[in-house]
Amino acid sequence: MTEDRSVLVVDDDAVFRLRLCRAFRDRGWEATEAAGGEEALILARENSPDLAVVDLRMPGMSGLDVVRDMRALDSTTCIIMLTGFGSIATAVTATKLGASHFLSKPADAEQILSAYHKLVEGDDPGSPNSVPSLARVEWEHIQRVLEDCGGNISQAAKLLGLHRRSLQRKLSKYPPPA
Question: How much of the chain is in helix, strand and coil states, percent to nearest 5?
Answer without folding.
Answer: 50, 15, 35
